[in-house]
Automatic annotation (TrEMBL):
InterPro entries hit by this protein: F-box-like_dom_sf (IPR036047), F-box_dom (IPR001810), FBXO4 (IPR039588)
Cellular component GO terms held in the UniProt record: SCF ubiquitin ligase complex
Pfam family for this entry, one: F-box
Swiss-Prot/TrEMBL GO biological process terms: protein polyubiquitination; SCF-dependent proteasomal ubiquitin-dependent protein catabolic process
Domain F-box stretches: 1-46
Gene3D superfamilies: 1.20.1280.50
Record protein name field: Uncharacterized protein LOC111457456 isoform X1
Length: 237
């Protein structure tokens, strides 16, 4: 049975189960489908699902999104916001991509990249769309994972599902950190050095908790320095 044969409420209910790209494709099928898929009901739901923090009352005062969804329509608002967030997130992508596999990124620069994503208020869906891509540098995948886990507080099982869906769960990164040497009978021992090569999926599991904790804290307290690499574990460093 075609959607045009259903009551409008039933047709909207079915369409509301689709993703934005699928709704856009459906809207090309017929005049009825186009009218259905342009509905504010669908696009408001998609907008609030993707950006649950959004405050419609204050959107009109934003410097990057001068119009509110009330004045421009929810579909136009969704598309404009998607384009703007994708454009601004590319700054983080370009920053990470300047590092070659043989050039590790320092922990401070790594953490500043994640803070930049937080300033953009990227959602979990945004992070997946921008950073969970298999053709990107593994460091970008890691940044997206870490941002979702530590800043957005997304449950681990949901992150694992996203990693597997995007086919990046088995990609690996190397993390190296230096810890202040322990005191032994009044003498401080040599600084300790640890290197771990771990998959993205393992970072979310219990076996990778210590690595993710080091990445979250950076060079602080007993940790003197942190580096992250996508190549072999710092063979040339």
């Amino acid at each position: 049975m075609g959607l045009h044969l259903l009551p409008i409420d039933a047709a909207l209910k079915i369409a509301s189960s689709l993703q934005a790209s699928d709704i856009c494709s459906l809207g090309c099928c017929s005049r009825f489908c186009k009218q259905l898929c342009d509905s504010d009901y669908l696009w408001e739901s998609l907008t609030r699902e993707r950006w649950p923090y959004i405050n419609v009352a204050s959107v009109s005062s934003s410097s990057t999104l001068a119009q509110s969804p009330i004045s421009m329509g929810w579909k136009s608002f969704y598309i404009q916001r998607h384009i703007e967030i994708s454009r601004r997130a590319q700054a983080a992508v370009k920053f990470i991509e300047q590092y070659s596999p043989s050039s590790p990124i320092e922990g401070g620069d790594y953490l500043r990249t994640i803070v930049g994503l937080w300033d953009l208020k990227l959602s979990f869906i945004d992070a997946q769309m921008v950073l969970f891509k298999p053709h990107l540098n593994e460091l970008l995948n890691l940044v997206g994972l870490h941002y979702c886990q530590s800043w957005l507080q997304v449950p681990g099982n949901e992150i694992i599902e996203a990693l597997e869906r995007c086919k990046i769960s088995e990609r690996q990164v190397s993390v190296k950190w230096w810890k202040l040497g322990r005191w032994f009978y009044g003498f401080r021992m040599r600084d300790e050095q640890q290197t771990r090569r771990v998959s993205l999926a393992a970072l979310i599991a219990e076996e990778g908790e210590d690595v993710l904790e080091v990445l979250s804290r950076g060079a602080v307290n007993e940790v003197l320095r942190v580096q992250v690499s996508v190549g072999e574990p710092f063979a040339s460093n």
